Amino acid sequence: MTDELAAGMSRLAGLLLASGDLTDSLAEVGAIVTRMLPGKPMVGIIVVRAGAEFVGGTVDLRRTVLAENRIRDLGPARQTVATGLAVSAPDLDLERRWPDHTKQLRIQGIRSVFTQPLVIESAPVGALVLYATEPNGFGTAARHAAELTADHIGVLLTLALTAADRAEQTEQLHAALASRSTIDQALGIMMARFRCSRDDAFDRLRGISQHRNVKVAALAAEIIEAVTGNPPGPVHFEHPRGLPRR
User: Fold this and answer.
1) pTM for the structure as a whole
2) Whole-angstrom Cα distance, residue 225 to residue 243?
3) What ranges in the chain are assigned the alpha helix state H?
4) What is the mean pLDDT of the chain?
5) For residues 145 and 38, what is the distance between their CA atoms, to the nearest angstrom?
6) Which of 39, 54, 63, 148 sits at a 20 to 30 Å CA gap from 173?
7) What's the fold here for domain 1-166?
8) Nearest 5 degrees, angle CA 13-CA 17-CA 19?
9) Residues 6+ apart with CB under 8 A from 196
10) Is residue 70 within 8 Å of residue 86, measured between CB atoms?
11) Where are the domains of the chain?
12) Is pLDDT above 90 for 28?
């Protein structure tokens, strides 16, 4: 591995593990990868997560992807995501596999394409895509460097997305606990007012919620504000050690 490639790997690690925005990260990743690969190619990156596409790079891939949504063939990037295999298109003037998509690339001045899958836990989740404005733009050295880079990005994406998922799960848990706290406060108010058990108070609360087509937590907040004059206060949680803050 060259010094430039190794330095680029280090910068990629710092970027993907520190950033909380995947789209912004991919744009920066594209710029770093361009500088570290032989020939300084144009670079695009596509990551598919939970059915959504995140696109970034040094070329306007978003325009290409939007155009691809309107055409029937996969194109080299999506073929790589679908199959988990690298794709080489050394001369788009001679390419016949994706006629509509190739036309879109040629309009943008692209003459050759090489893709490498981004893999998480043995499953392809995206593609690293190299573009050149001349045919046969990617020799053995460039393809080998792209393979190493894609493997490295896959490992970093695993860590970054795992951290993001943990942060999201923590936020969801906090929201659920906050709703539970609000409902508990409202039940206490209703138990005191109607001199009833907790179960009876909850039955009353749920019945009103269904009648008004309002969520139980929202109705509970209304009750608290009506009685106290203030909305439910925020619930404070101590942030667990080892989990990323967002």
Assistant:
1) 0.59
2) 34
3) 3-18, 22-36, 61-69, 75-83, 99-107, 140-194, 198-212, 216-228
4) 77
5) 8
6) 54
7) Beta-Lactamase (3.30.450)
8) 120
9) 190, 204
10) no
11) 1-166, 172-228
12) no
Rounded Cα distance between 217 and 235, Å, is 14
In angstroms, the CA 187 to CA 207 distance is 13
205-212 mean pLDDT = 90
In the chain, the percentage of residues whose pLDDT exceeds 70 is: 66
Give the architecture (CATH level 2) of 172-228. Answer: Orthogonal Bundle (1.10)
Collect all residues with Cβ–Cβ distance below 8 Å to 222 and sequence separation of at least 6.
Answer: 214
DSSP 213: T
Mean pLDDT, to the nearest integer, of 9-30?
58
C-alpha to C-alpha distance for 28 and 84, rounded to whole angstroms: 24
Pairwise CA distance, residues 130 & 143, whole Å: 9
Which of 107, 97, 103, 17 minimizes the C-alpha distance to 115?
97
Say which amino acid occupies 98: W
